[in-house]
Amino acid sequence: MKQIFIILLLFTTTISIAQVQHNFEKGPENTNCHELPPEFANHNEAIKALTSTTFRLKETLSISKHLNPQALRYYSCDGKSGYLVAKETDSTYQVYPQIPYKLWQEFSESKDPVYFYKEKIKTQYSKLPQ
Q1: What is the pLDDT of residues 74-105, one digit of tens each?
Q2: Does residue 48 lie in a domain region?
Q3: pTM of the prediction?
Q4: C-alpha to C-alpha distances, 17 to 6, 9, 20, nearest whole angstrom
Q5: 126 part of a folded domain
Q6: Are 51 and 31 in contact (CB under 8 A)?
Q7: Where is the signal peptide (predicted)?
């Protein structure tokens, strides 16, 4: 009986230790954000660099193939601000630097992301030149 109790006690202790949750963030040492130039000449240069960089935070939102924008990606080195790449059509992309992460969160939780994009991002933030 004592053996069963000891085994049960050890098993319970192991389970409670194993349930510790970890929220690991990629630190600067696990990204290559430091290799990004401070500015991009155009959106093609930016897209090429952004898609080949390892970011701390990278999120995607697909909307619809028939709406504008069709999809968006958010890239951030520090988790506070980052780049927003909007796929407006199959061949048209817009890149918006310096988009706050809080705005991206509001956008991704919006009931009408198309309206949010047009009213809060497209009209209020500067995009990179074509």
Answers
A1: 999 999 999 999 999 888 999 999 999 999 99
A2: yes
A3: 0.75
A4: 17, 12, 6
A5: yes
A6: no
A7: 1-18
